Amino acid sequence: MKHLLSLIALSTTVVLRAQTFTTYGTGQGLPNLDVRDVAVAPDGKIWVATAAGIASFDGTTFNTYSVGSHPTFLNDDTYAIEVLDNGDVWVGTDFGLSVLQGSTFTNYTTANGLSDNEIKNIKQAPNGDVWIATINGATRFSASTFTAFGSPSIPFGGTTHVAFAGNGDVLLSGGLGGMIVFNGSTFSAVTTAGGLLSNRLRSIVVNNAQERWVATADGISVLSASNAHIVDHETVFILPPPDELNPITDLVIDAYGRIWAGVYVDYLVTVGGVSVYTDGVWDQYDESDGLAGPNVRRLAADANSIWVATSTGLTRISDINIGVEEREAASFRLSPNPASAFVDVSLDQAVSTTVEVLDSRGRIVIGARANGQRQRIDVSMLQPGLYLLRVGVQSVRFVVER
Protein backbone atom coordinates (compact mmCIF):
# COMPACT_ATOMS: atom_id res chain seq x y z
CA MET A 1 0.00 0.00 0.00
CA LYS A 2 0.90 3.63 0.52
CA HIS A 3 3.77 5.59 -0.90
CA LEU A 4 4.89 2.86 -3.30
CA LEU A 5 8.00 4.05 -5.14
CA SER A 6 8.11 3.46 -8.88
CA LEU A 7 11.80 4.28 -9.22
CA ILE A 8 14.94 3.10 -7.49
CA ALA A 9 18.34 4.74 -7.86
CA LEU A 10 21.47 2.77 -8.56
CA SER A 11 24.10 4.54 -10.62
CA THR A 12 21.18 5.32 -12.92
CA THR A 13 17.42 5.20 -12.42
CA VAL A 14 15.60 1.99 -13.31
CA VAL A 15 12.04 0.77 -13.03
CA LEU A 16 10.85 -1.01 -9.90
CA ARG A 17 7.93 -3.28 -10.74
CA ALA A 18 4.70 -3.21 -8.77
CA GLN A 19 4.61 -5.86 -6.09
CA THR A 20 2.31 -8.87 -6.27
CA PHE A 21 0.93 -10.35 -3.03
CA THR A 22 0.02 -14.05 -2.94
CA THR A 23 -1.30 -15.48 0.32
CA TYR A 24 -1.33 -19.17 1.24
CA GLY A 25 -3.58 -20.75 3.84
CA THR A 26 -4.83 -24.18 4.76
CA GLY A 27 -6.91 -24.22 1.59
CA GLN A 28 -3.69 -24.11 -0.44
CA GLY A 29 -2.07 -26.88 1.64
CA LEU A 30 -0.46 -24.97 4.51
CA PRO A 31 -0.63 -27.28 7.57
CA ASN A 32 -1.75 -24.43 9.84
CA LEU A 33 -2.41 -20.69 9.53
CA ASP A 34 -0.18 -19.98 12.53
CA VAL A 35 3.20 -19.66 10.77
CA ARG A 36 6.13 -18.96 13.10
CA ASP A 37 9.17 -19.04 10.78
CA VAL A 38 10.10 -19.32 7.10
CA ALA A 39 13.36 -20.30 5.38
CA VAL A 40 14.66 -20.61 1.82
CA ALA A 41 16.45 -23.89 1.03
CA PRO A 42 19.50 -24.13 -1.26
CA ASP A 43 17.30 -25.83 -3.88
CA GLY A 44 14.86 -22.90 -3.80
CA LYS A 45 12.08 -24.60 -1.85
CA ILE A 46 10.38 -22.65 0.92
CA TRP A 47 10.11 -24.25 4.34
CA VAL A 48 7.78 -23.08 7.10
CA ALA A 49 7.44 -23.83 10.78
CA THR A 50 3.83 -23.80 11.98
CA ALA A 51 1.70 -24.73 14.98
CA ALA A 52 0.87 -28.03 13.29
CA GLY A 53 4.19 -29.23 11.91
CA ILE A 54 6.52 -28.07 9.16
CA ALA A 55 6.07 -27.98 5.41
CA SER A 56 8.09 -27.51 2.24
CA PHE A 57 6.68 -25.59 -0.72
CA ASP A 58 7.97 -26.02 -4.28
CA GLY A 59 5.86 -23.23 -5.73
CA THR A 60 2.89 -25.51 -6.33
CA THR A 61 2.46 -28.02 -3.50
CA PHE A 62 2.97 -28.00 0.25
CA ASN A 63 4.48 -31.21 1.63
CA THR A 64 3.75 -31.49 5.36
CA TYR A 65 5.76 -33.25 8.06
CA SER A 66 4.08 -33.89 11.39
CA VAL A 67 4.07 -36.40 14.21
CA GLY A 68 1.19 -38.12 12.46
CA SER A 69 3.12 -38.64 9.23
CA HIS A 70 6.55 -39.01 10.85
CA PRO A 71 6.25 -40.47 14.37
CA THR A 72 9.90 -39.71 15.18
CA PHE A 73 9.26 -35.97 14.76
CA LEU A 74 9.73 -34.33 18.16
CA ASN A 75 6.66 -32.08 18.28
CA ASP A 76 4.22 -30.45 15.87
CA ASP A 77 4.30 -27.08 17.68
CA THR A 78 7.32 -25.61 15.85
CA TYR A 79 8.93 -22.18 16.14
CA ALA A 80 12.15 -22.08 14.12
CA ILE A 81 13.40 -23.64 10.89
CA GLU A 82 16.65 -23.62 8.90
CA VAL A 83 17.76 -25.65 5.88
CA LEU A 84 21.51 -26.35 5.80
CA ASP A 85 23.75 -26.39 2.76
CA ASN A 86 23.52 -30.18 2.64
CA GLY A 87 19.71 -30.11 2.63
CA ASP A 88 19.17 -31.17 6.24
CA VAL A 89 16.22 -29.39 7.87
CA TRP A 90 16.67 -28.19 11.46
CA VAL A 91 13.47 -27.53 13.39
CA GLY A 92 13.18 -25.75 16.72
CA THR A 93 10.37 -26.47 19.19
CA ASP A 94 9.67 -25.76 22.87
CA PHE A 95 10.88 -29.28 23.61
CA GLY A 96 14.18 -29.35 21.75
CA LEU A 97 15.60 -29.73 18.26
CA SER A 98 14.41 -32.09 15.51
CA VAL A 99 16.65 -32.64 12.47
CA LEU A 100 15.22 -34.05 9.24
CA GLN A 101 17.71 -36.01 7.11
CA GLY A 102 15.99 -37.52 4.11
CA SER A 103 12.78 -38.85 5.63
CA THR A 104 14.07 -39.48 9.17
CA PHE A 105 13.99 -37.15 12.17
CA THR A 106 16.64 -37.22 14.90
CA ASN A 107 15.95 -35.31 18.10
CA TYR A 108 18.23 -33.39 20.48
CA THR A 109 17.62 -31.76 23.86
CA THR A 110 19.58 -30.33 26.77
CA ALA A 111 20.68 -33.90 27.43
CA ASN A 112 22.65 -33.67 24.17
CA GLY A 113 24.13 -30.25 24.96
CA LEU A 114 21.50 -27.66 24.04
CA SER A 115 21.50 -24.54 26.23
CA ASP A 116 17.70 -24.87 26.55
CA ASN A 117 14.95 -26.86 24.88
CA GLU A 118 12.92 -23.73 24.04
CA ILE A 119 14.37 -22.74 20.66
CA LYS A 120 13.83 -19.31 19.10
CA ASN A 121 16.01 -19.29 15.97
CA ILE A 122 18.45 -21.47 13.98
CA LYS A 123 21.06 -20.26 11.48
CA GLN A 124 24.01 -21.87 9.67
CA ALA A 125 27.22 -19.86 9.69
CA PRO A 126 29.40 -19.36 6.59
CA ASN A 127 31.94 -21.81 8.08
CA GLY A 128 29.27 -24.54 8.35
CA ASP A 129 28.64 -24.28 12.09
CA VAL A 130 25.01 -24.15 13.19
CA TRP A 131 23.94 -21.68 15.88
CA ILE A 132 20.76 -22.11 17.90
CA ALA A 133 19.18 -19.22 19.81
CA THR A 134 17.30 -20.35 22.91
CA ILE A 135 15.35 -18.72 25.70
CA ASN A 136 18.23 -19.36 28.11
CA GLY A 137 21.33 -18.80 25.98
CA ALA A 138 22.76 -20.02 22.70
CA THR A 139 24.22 -23.25 21.34
CA ARG A 140 26.84 -23.87 18.67
CA PHE A 141 26.95 -27.13 16.72
CA SER A 142 30.43 -27.68 15.31
CA ALA A 143 32.33 -30.83 14.39
CA SER A 144 29.32 -32.95 15.46
CA THR A 145 29.37 -31.43 18.95
CA PHE A 146 26.90 -29.15 20.73
CA THR A 147 28.43 -26.41 22.89
CA ALA A 148 26.05 -24.45 25.12
CA PHE A 149 26.61 -20.84 26.16
CA GLY A 150 24.71 -19.28 29.02
CA SER A 151 25.19 -16.81 31.86
CA PRO A 152 27.35 -14.78 32.25
CA SER A 153 28.33 -14.90 28.53
CA ILE A 154 24.67 -14.60 27.53
CA PRO A 155 22.71 -12.11 29.69
CA PHE A 156 19.35 -12.96 31.24
CA GLY A 157 16.66 -13.15 28.57
CA GLY A 158 18.50 -15.55 26.29
CA THR A 159 18.70 -14.98 22.54
CA THR A 160 16.09 -14.62 19.81
CA HIS A 161 18.03 -14.55 16.52
CA VAL A 162 21.45 -15.22 14.98
CA ALA A 163 23.38 -13.32 12.29
CA PHE A 164 26.96 -13.39 11.01
CA ALA A 165 29.40 -10.61 10.20
CA GLY A 166 31.96 -10.73 7.42
CA ASN A 167 34.84 -10.85 9.90
CA GLY A 168 33.51 -14.10 11.38
CA ASP A 169 31.79 -12.58 14.41
CA VAL A 170 28.52 -14.18 15.50
CA LEU A 171 25.84 -11.59 16.31
CA LEU A 172 23.14 -12.72 18.72
CA SER A 173 19.94 -10.81 19.37
CA GLY A 174 19.49 -10.68 23.12
CA GLY A 175 15.98 -11.04 24.43
CA LEU A 176 16.82 -8.42 27.05
CA GLY A 177 20.58 -7.95 26.72
CA GLY A 178 21.16 -6.03 23.49
CA MET A 179 23.39 -7.28 20.67
CA ILE A 180 25.72 -9.99 21.91
CA VAL A 181 28.94 -10.39 19.89
CA PHE A 182 31.00 -13.59 19.86
CA ASN A 183 34.41 -13.20 18.21
CA GLY A 184 35.30 -16.86 18.38
CA SER A 185 36.65 -16.79 21.91
CA THR A 186 34.93 -14.10 23.97
CA PHE A 187 31.51 -12.48 24.28
CA SER A 188 30.74 -8.76 24.46
CA ALA A 189 27.54 -6.75 24.25
CA VAL A 190 26.25 -3.58 22.62
CA THR A 191 23.35 -2.10 24.58
CA THR A 192 21.44 1.17 24.91
CA ALA A 193 24.61 2.60 26.41
CA GLY A 194 26.20 2.01 23.01
CA GLY A 195 23.36 3.61 21.09
CA LEU A 196 20.69 0.92 20.67
CA LEU A 197 17.11 2.12 20.90
CA SER A 198 16.27 -0.81 23.18
CA ASN A 199 17.97 -3.86 24.65
CA ARG A 200 15.03 -6.05 23.57
CA LEU A 201 16.10 -7.41 20.19
CA ARG A 202 14.38 -9.69 17.70
CA SER A 203 16.67 -9.74 14.66
CA ILE A 204 19.90 -8.49 13.05
CA VAL A 205 20.97 -8.29 9.41
CA VAL A 206 24.37 -7.30 8.01
CA ASN A 207 24.55 -5.47 4.68
CA ASN A 208 27.37 -5.35 2.11
CA ALA A 209 29.02 -2.48 3.96
CA GLN A 210 29.01 -4.68 7.09
CA GLU A 211 26.60 -2.33 8.83
CA ARG A 212 24.49 -4.07 11.46
CA TRP A 213 20.78 -3.28 11.16
CA VAL A 214 19.36 -4.18 14.56
CA ALA A 215 15.63 -4.84 15.11
CA THR A 216 14.59 -3.62 18.54
CA ALA A 217 11.33 -3.22 20.42
CA ASP A 218 11.47 0.54 19.68
CA GLY A 219 12.64 0.63 16.07
CA ILE A 220 15.83 -0.07 14.12
CA SER A 221 19.34 0.94 15.18
CA VAL A 222 22.12 0.88 12.60
CA LEU A 223 25.67 0.15 13.74
CA SER A 224 28.94 0.31 11.82
CA ALA A 225 31.26 -2.62 11.11
CA SER A 226 33.01 -1.74 14.38
CA ASN A 227 29.64 -1.77 16.19
CA ALA A 228 29.54 2.02 16.62
CA HIS A 229 26.15 3.67 16.47
CA ILE A 230 25.31 5.37 13.15
CA VAL A 231 21.61 6.19 13.03
CA ASP A 232 18.16 5.09 14.20
CA HIS A 233 14.94 4.44 12.30
CA GLU A 234 12.13 4.87 14.83
CA THR A 235 9.25 5.24 12.36
CA VAL A 236 9.47 2.34 9.92
CA PHE A 237 5.72 1.75 9.85
CA ILE A 238 3.17 4.49 10.54
CA LEU A 239 0.94 3.36 13.41
CA PRO A 240 -2.22 4.97 14.78
CA PRO A 241 -1.71 7.09 17.94
CA PRO A 242 -0.64 6.49 20.63
CA ASP A 243 1.33 3.53 19.19
CA GLU A 244 4.18 5.57 17.77
CA LEU A 245 7.17 3.33 18.52
CA ASN A 246 7.79 0.49 16.06
CA PRO A 247 8.37 -2.96 17.56
CA ILE A 248 10.41 -4.64 14.79
CA THR A 249 9.78 -8.37 14.54
CA ASP A 250 12.32 -9.26 11.84
CA LEU A 251 14.68 -7.85 9.21
CA VAL A 252 15.83 -9.27 5.90
CA ILE A 253 17.83 -7.99 2.91
CA ASP A 254 16.41 -8.73 -0.53
CA ALA A 255 18.28 -9.70 -3.67
CA TYR A 256 18.91 -6.05 -4.49
CA GLY A 257 20.21 -4.91 -1.14
CA ARG A 258 17.00 -3.34 0.20
CA ILE A 259 16.07 -3.71 3.86
CA TRP A 260 12.66 -5.21 4.66
CA ALA A 261 11.24 -4.94 8.17
CA GLY A 262 8.35 -6.67 9.88
CA VAL A 263 6.39 -4.59 12.40
CA TYR A 264 3.67 -5.69 14.82
CA VAL A 265 2.05 -4.05 17.82
CA ASP A 266 -0.79 -5.44 19.91
CA TYR A 267 -1.42 -2.93 22.67
CA LEU A 268 -4.39 -0.59 22.29
CA VAL A 269 -4.85 -1.68 18.69
CA THR A 270 -3.69 -4.64 16.65
CA VAL A 271 -1.76 -3.47 13.62
CA GLY A 272 1.32 -4.42 11.66
CA GLY A 273 2.83 -5.25 8.31
CA VAL A 274 6.08 -4.95 6.40
CA SER A 275 8.10 -1.95 5.22
CA VAL A 276 10.88 -1.69 2.65
CA TYR A 277 13.67 0.91 2.72
CA THR A 278 14.47 2.37 -0.68
CA ASP A 279 16.42 5.56 -1.40
CA GLY A 280 16.00 6.83 2.15
CA VAL A 281 12.24 6.21 2.28
CA TRP A 282 10.25 3.53 4.08
CA ASP A 283 7.20 2.24 2.17
CA GLN A 284 4.73 0.11 4.10
CA TYR A 285 2.32 -2.69 3.22
CA ASP A 286 -0.44 -4.29 5.25
CA GLU A 287 -3.56 -6.44 4.97
CA SER A 288 -5.17 -4.02 2.53
CA ASP A 289 -2.35 -4.76 0.11
CA GLY A 290 -2.72 -8.53 0.45
CA LEU A 291 -0.72 -9.55 3.52
CA ALA A 292 -2.18 -12.54 5.33
CA GLY A 293 -2.42 -10.58 8.56
CA PRO A 294 -0.86 -7.91 10.80
CA ASN A 295 1.06 -10.25 13.12
CA VAL A 296 4.31 -10.55 11.18
CA ARG A 297 6.63 -13.11 12.77
CA ARG A 298 9.52 -13.72 10.36
CA LEU A 299 10.70 -12.79 6.87
CA ALA A 300 12.80 -14.58 4.26
CA ALA A 301 14.13 -13.50 0.86
CA ASP A 302 14.77 -15.56 -2.25
CA ALA A 303 15.95 -14.33 -5.65
CA ASN A 304 12.69 -12.60 -6.54
CA SER A 305 10.41 -12.63 -3.51
CA ILE A 306 9.94 -11.75 0.12
CA TRP A 307 8.17 -14.40 2.20
CA VAL A 308 6.18 -13.20 5.21
CA ALA A 309 5.24 -15.56 8.04
CA THR A 310 2.21 -14.35 10.00
CA SER A 311 -0.17 -15.79 12.59
CA THR A 312 -2.85 -15.99 9.90
CA GLY A 313 -1.01 -17.45 6.91
CA LEU A 314 1.99 -17.13 4.63
CA THR A 315 2.38 -14.33 2.08
CA ARG A 316 4.71 -14.08 -0.89
CA ILE A 317 5.58 -10.59 -2.13
CA SER A 318 6.85 -11.06 -5.68
CA ASP A 319 7.61 -9.07 -8.84
CA ILE A 320 9.93 -6.81 -6.86
CA ASN A 321 13.05 -7.49 -8.89
CA ILE A 322 14.86 -4.96 -11.03
CA GLY A 323 15.18 -5.90 -14.72
CA VAL A 324 16.01 -9.60 -15.01
CA GLU A 325 18.09 -9.30 -18.17
CA GLU A 326 20.60 -6.82 -16.87
CA ARG A 327 21.31 -4.75 -13.78
CA GLU A 328 23.62 -1.79 -13.60
CA ALA A 329 25.76 -1.05 -10.56
CA ALA A 330 27.78 2.02 -9.68
CA SER A 331 30.92 1.14 -11.64
CA PHE A 332 30.17 -1.96 -13.68
CA ARG A 333 27.48 -3.75 -15.61
CA LEU A 334 26.63 -7.45 -15.23
CA SER A 335 24.75 -9.54 -17.79
CA PRO A 336 22.87 -11.75 -18.23
CA ASN A 337 20.87 -11.95 -15.03
CA PRO A 338 19.68 -14.66 -14.43
CA ALA A 339 22.70 -16.56 -15.80
CA SER A 340 23.31 -20.21 -16.58
CA ALA A 341 26.82 -20.64 -18.03
CA PHE A 342 28.61 -17.31 -17.60
CA VAL A 343 28.26 -13.66 -16.64
CA ASP A 344 29.99 -10.79 -18.42
CA VAL A 345 31.29 -7.94 -16.28
CA SER A 346 31.72 -4.65 -18.15
CA LEU A 347 33.56 -1.94 -16.24
CA ASP A 348 33.09 1.78 -16.83
CA GLN A 349 36.81 2.14 -17.41
CA ALA A 350 39.86 -0.04 -17.91
CA VAL A 351 41.19 -0.90 -14.44
CA SER A 352 42.91 -3.74 -12.65
CA THR A 353 40.66 -4.94 -9.85
CA THR A 354 39.44 -8.05 -8.04
CA VAL A 355 36.28 -9.83 -9.15
CA GLU A 356 34.67 -12.25 -6.70
CA VAL A 357 31.50 -14.32 -6.58
CA LEU A 358 30.05 -15.02 -3.12
CA ASP A 359 27.32 -17.51 -2.28
CA SER A 360 24.21 -16.80 -0.23
CA ARG A 361 26.12 -17.36 2.99
CA GLY A 362 28.91 -14.93 2.13
CA ARG A 363 31.58 -17.41 1.08
CA ILE A 364 33.83 -16.61 -1.90
CA VAL A 365 33.26 -19.34 -4.50
CA ILE A 366 35.01 -17.71 -7.49
CA GLY A 367 37.91 -15.27 -7.49
CA ALA A 368 39.48 -13.55 -10.49
CA ARG A 369 41.24 -10.37 -11.50
CA ALA A 370 39.89 -8.04 -14.17
CA ASN A 371 42.39 -6.27 -16.39
CA GLY A 372 40.66 -3.98 -18.84
CA GLN A 373 36.99 -3.24 -19.24
CA ARG A 374 35.51 -6.71 -19.72
CA GLN A 375 35.72 -9.95 -17.76
CA ARG A 376 33.81 -13.19 -18.38
CA ILE A 377 33.11 -15.35 -15.31
CA ASP A 378 32.30 -19.04 -15.72
CA VAL A 379 29.38 -19.90 -13.40
CA SER A 380 28.46 -23.22 -15.00
CA MET A 381 29.78 -25.18 -12.00
CA LEU A 382 27.71 -23.24 -9.45
CA GLN A 383 24.52 -24.64 -7.99
CA PRO A 384 21.32 -22.74 -8.92
CA GLY A 385 20.58 -19.94 -6.49
CA LEU A 386 21.35 -16.37 -5.46
CA TYR A 387 24.94 -15.05 -5.60
CA LEU A 388 26.77 -11.78 -5.05
CA LEU A 389 29.26 -10.47 -7.63
CA ARG A 390 31.77 -8.10 -6.05
CA VAL A 391 34.09 -5.87 -8.07
CA GLY A 392 36.44 -3.99 -5.79
CA VAL A 393 34.15 -2.38 -3.21
CA GLN A 394 31.04 -2.46 -5.44
CA SER A 395 28.67 -5.42 -5.56
CA VAL A 396 25.48 -6.65 -7.17
CA ARG A 397 23.33 -9.75 -6.69
CA PHE A 398 22.56 -12.17 -9.51
CA VAL A 399 20.80 -15.48 -10.00
CA VAL A 400 22.18 -18.72 -11.42
CA GLU A 401 19.54 -20.97 -12.92
CA ARG A 402 19.50 -24.06 -15.10
- Structural class label: mainly beta
- CATH class of the largest domain reads Mainly Beta
| Cα Rg | 21 Å
Low-confidence stretches: 1-17, 322-330
Provide a descriptive summary of the structure in words.
It is a single chain. The two termini are 34 Å apart. The strands form nine sheets. Strands 31, 32, 33, 34, 35 and 36 form a six-stranded antiparallel β-sheet that branches. The chain has strands spanning 7-9, 13-15, 20-24, 35-40, 46-50, 53-57, 62-65, 78-83, 89-93, 96-101, 104-108, 119-124, 130-134, 137-142, 145-149, 159-164, 170-174, 179-182, 187-190, 201-206, 212-216, 219-223, 229-233, 248-253, 259-266, 270-278, 281-285, 296-301, 306-310, 313-318, 327-328, 332-335, 342-358, 364-378, 385-391, 394-400. 0% of the residues lie in helices and 53% in strands. The protein is mostly beta strands and 402 residues long. The model is unreliable at 1-17 and 322-330 (pLDDT under 50). The protein folds into two domains: 7-318, Methylamine Dehydrogenase, Chain H (7 Propeller), CATH 2.130.10; 327-400, Immunoglobulin-like (Sandwich), CATH 2.60.40. Strand 26 and strand 27 (281-285) form a beta hairpin.
Give a brief description.
This protein has 402 residues and is mainly β. Helix content is 0%, strand content 53%.
Question: What's the helix and strand layout?
Answer:
Layout: E1 7-9, E2 13-15, E3 20-24, E4 35-40, E5 46-50, E6 53-57, E7 62-65, E8 78-83, E9 89-93, E10 96-101, E11 104-108, E12 119-124, E13 130-134, E14 137-142, E15 145-149, E16 159-164, E17 170-174, E18 179-182, E19 187-190, E20 201-206, E21 212-216, E22 219-223, E23 229-233, E24 248-253, E25 259-266, E26 270-278, E27 281-285, E28 296-301, E29 306-310, E30 313-318, E31 327-328, E32 332-335, E33 342-358, E34 364-378, E35 385-391, E36 394-400
Antiparallel strand pairs: 1-2, 3-30, 4-5, 5-6, 6-7, 8-9, 9-10, 10-11, 12-13, 13-14, 14-15, 16-17, 17-18, 18-19, 20-21, 21-22, 22-23, 24-25, 25-26, 26-27, 28-29, 29-30, 31-32, 32-33, 33-34, 33-35, 35-36
